[in-house]
Design brief:
The chain has 647 residues and is mainly β. Helix content is 4%, strand content 48%. The N terminus is likely disordered.
Amino acid sequence: MNRSHFCWLVAGVLVLLAAQPAAAQLKIAYDAKSPPDDLQDKGYIPLRPNVAQPIYFYYYNSAAIAKKNVKITLQQVYIDNKRLENPKVIATATIPTAPAKKFEPIKFELGKLAGQPALKDAAGKEVAAVWPRLDAPPYVLRFLIDDGAIKKNPPITVSVKLQEPREVVNVVHARFEAEKQRLSFKLSTREPFDPPCPVELVLHESAIPGLSRVPEGTFKQKLSKDNREVELSASNIEFKNGLTPRNGRISITVDGFERAFQYTCSFTEGSPVPLKDEMRARIVAPRYSLPSTKLPIVIEIDSKSRTNDGEDILQTSLVDLRFDRSGQKTFEKVVGSPYRGLRELTVEYKAEGEAFLFKTKVNDRVVELDTEGISATKRTLKVQLLNAKQGIIPIANEQDDRDEKVALFSFDPTNVFAPLLFDKNTNTVTAELIIDATPAEDMRLIVTPLRPRQEERLKTRLTVRPRNEEKQAPIAKIVFFVGEAEKDHKPPKDAVKVDAEWSKADNAWVPKEDFIVPADKLGKLVISAEVETATGVAMSRKQELTVIAKNAGQAGGPDVLTTIIGVVKRGARPQPDLPVVLAKAKPNKDDVPKQTKTNGDGKFEFTDVEPGDYVVSAQHLGTFGRQALKINKNQEKASADLDLKTK
């Protein structure tokens, strides 16, 4: 080889080496105008919760010469905390020409993706998914770059980090002014939010015992690049009976991320106190519910601040939910449990020009619990938090800690949510649910008189068997009304209804307002009562009355017919469901005896009996009772008790 050939070869090698950087470089930016950062150095892609957010990726050609047909593949490499042997391809891109020493935007295309169900239009033709979804957390992406380098580029692996609002938003002021009953919070951020970041002040009865009214305030605001400090407020807050709670719980939602900030407040002059930085778990479920295949249960999980150990607890932690379906303390895993991620997390994506859009959702997890086939009983649901290695995560004691206690742990009858219990030994929170479809039982409606006159006041009483508080839903509502109930035992929409109240004197439920017979009513009148349990199961009873004229029996007025009442006994024991016959003492051939049956107390009744001589009789198992009666003209009532004896 001569000297000129050698020099040419050396020059060629130098040029070739100059064109080969140590490794390919990717850049990331959050808007099209900002200078990009090194993706490798950052190590993650931060995304706001509940936002559709554009991300801009760039390929940087650090070589001294341009590169042709640079191919970039984007993959998801972890699903359910396991590395995939065959990573799922998310998107691909080809850069026709990458100029030397310059950034070049990456225009990804989704195409038909592996693992995604084929979508079809109205004509049945396959179309690309508009917003495909990343598989279950934790979310880890990998970029593969083929830019013709002799030494193959190592993959660039980054995690998708769902930012918790407290990482970018601060509460700079919190105050309660007792005189004005005004609560206020000032929030600020150095983040130039685009799109704007909604913030909301939340006061809810499940966290503030006795809260009755929050009439005015500024409950919602938006932080943005032009408005980086806002105030939230609530004024003239009212409580039942004027009693302020000892430890009300207040929260602030940021970017749709519920309970981003939480405070305790006794609603006395001063500053609300932030909750301790601890993990928290709660179950929000109805205290009383009907059996169902899909009973919605909300799992509220609040995470502590991120630590320096690198673990993303929001994505990697597990929520273990179990249900004692049999009632024998044999807790079974609820379908899908343990759930990956402290909250319901989804990340969808779409390629749009130079932007790669991520649409995120971070919500409290709603689980559909199967309680079908269970009734009139109490069942327990429990939740526990586990780390990525299945170790138990300690959680805050929101039951016994005086400053942190929350109303969901109360067994007070006014708590409409399933009361919670905390077990500090197992770091478990349990909820006690009463599942019940039974109606009110042994309803007895008594309305007197049975033959009222027009404009007469009725005396109405209702007795109901007491409910088993350990197993049954309590009675939630009792109403009296005029007319007959519908098939579902509910009053007709146009019925005259009166709420009930308990009367100690009567030892029964009575109307809050008296029923008065209308002046123009004659003949049949029905008074009914509806009893509804806390699970919405209704039952009704009715009593038929016969309205007579206001001047019946008076001079010049119509005659009054008689009502015969009595009780059938055998010794001291009333005889229920027994036929009783009313016949004329000297019947004509056309006279037909009347017949009725005794009720559960052995009582019977005949109405609209004309004047005359009668015999009332009953018999049962070789015993017989008989009584003669004389009914006079315009006699309103008569009694005839029967004592069954051996013939």
